[in-house]
Every structure is written in C-alpha cells, then in structure tokens.
Amino acid sequence: MYRRYERFFQTLPRPLVRFMRDTYLAALDLRDRLTGKTGPLTPPRSLHFIGGGDFDRIGEIFLGHFIKVGGLKESETVLDIGCGTGRMAIPMMKYLSESGAYHGFDISRKAIAWCQRAITPRKPNFNFHYANIYNKEYNSRGRLSAAEYRFPCGDQSVDFAFATSVFTHMRRAEVEHYLTELNRTFKPAGRAMVSFFILDDENKRLVKEGRSVYDFAHNLGDCLTVDPHTPERATAYTLEDLKTMVTKAGLKIQEPILYGSWSGRRSMLDAQDVVIVTKG
Length: 280
Ligand SMILES: C[S@@+](CC[C@H](N)C(=O)[O-])C[C@H]1O[C@@H](n2cnc3c(N)ncnc32)[C@H](O)[C@@H]1O
Description:
Rossmann fold, four-stranded mixed sheet, 8 helices, globular
C-alpha cells in the first residue's frame, strides 16, 4: 500500500506535492493545537517533512540502534548531521550525561531555530547550528555548497556521528566531502551510522522487478535519482561507488551493511540502508 502511494506521488509535479503536503501538515498542526496534543518538545509538523510515522517513537527506536548497534555511551560527544527538528536529539536529552555533548546542524533555518528555542535552554550541552547550504529539495535559496562546508566541530572531537535520511538527499561531491569531514572530526575510535540507498546486486534486482519503493531510474553520472528535475528528492549510489567514496575519505565500512526495506528486502534495521563507518 505504502509503495503504491509513494509511487503515485512520484508521478506528480514537485510544487504540487509540496503544496499538498504543506496544507496537510498545517491542518494536522492546527488539530494538534486545538486538541492540546502538543507539548514543549513537539515541533510543528509543518516545520519540515520527515516522512510518515510517529516522530517520538522513531526517535526512541533510533536511540536504541545508536546504543546497541553503534555503541553510543552516555558521556560521548555526538554529531547529528542534518538534525532537522530534533527527532533524534529529543530522546537523546534523557540519555546523554552532563559530560556528554550533542551538536546538530541542518540547512533548515526554521528547524534549527525551533531546536535552539525548545532544546538548548533545557539541555545546555545540546548545540544547534544553521548552515545556509543549497539543496534543491530542502533549501533552494542556500548560498553555501555542501561540498565545501566545514562541520561545526573541531578536529578529533566526535565519538559518535549519525545522518538519518540526509545523505539520501545529497549529490556525490557533497557525500564525498561529508565523509572527509567525518574523518577530520572523528576521535581515533570515532564511528558513524549513515543511511543511504545502496544499489548492490540484490537491490538492483529488486528494483528491476518493481519491488522497491523507489526505482532510481535516472542516472545523472554522479548519482542515481528518482527525479531528474529535483535530484535531491532521493539519491542512490552503487555499492562500488559507495565503497570508493568511503575509502577515498580515509574511512572504512564496518561489515555487515544493514540493508533496509525500501528495496523490498527484509529490513535489517530501518527502511533505508544503514552503513557504519569508522576510521580507515
Ligand atoms: C528527511 S529529513 C531527516 C531529518 C533528520 N535527520 C531526521 O531523521 O529526523 C532530511 C534533512 O536533511 C537536511 N539536509 C539536507 N541536505 C543537508 C546538508 N547538506 N547538510 C545538512 N543537512 C542537510 C534537511 O534540511 C532535512 O532536515
């Protein structure tokens, strides 16, 4: 059902989809306000779109993955790449101790402003940074390039980083640079959990058979996308390209790759494919 619904929206013009989505989310925000469903740590849904599903529940589930799979500890320094409205930061507020630290950055000015207002006054060791980076899907007026952006963290300062559903909206040169930035900011035992859409042999076969949510039918040379007009809507990389990018950045992939359900295969962790990278 979800697959059919997702594929239907892929056939509509992007401005129309955005308009329908924003109207729908504004209506849900109004309903939540009228029924008193919102709390101080509930961001308005209309601030940005992060797909379907329960905001709080998904954040809790990912915190569990970060601890069990990524080995996150309470006292560590964490970097959240593309933190949005704090879906992962909010559950982490209860987990990280005062000796730990959280840094999140995003290209959505409104999302970062909300996090700075709602989260930092309650947890001063949680910092949020706005990066005015161009992305046709998320910040079409951005002035900076992700391929040159310096993460807001010093060299060798990060224990654990993650990017959930962010590199899946980025072009190759941008992904390559972000991987290099991970290497720069990682402590010697640093590691990151990063989600991708990966085209390995199995996923290519499932896509060909029409079993996947996305078809990635357009090969732009640097990446594959579902939409050649707005490539950042969803980007994919072949497994070979991903391995090349990771190695070039001086990192390595911790096996196994945790493949997701987007392709139609049984999920090992999430809907997207999750890769753990460490220093090479
Ligand atoms: C699907 S949302 C996911 C948000 C958040 N990671 C989560 O899981 O709730 C994608 C996010 O990536 C951000 N984004 C896109 N390109 C980015 C970039 N180059 N650097 C940082 N964030 C980026 C968008 O603004 C958006 O908040």
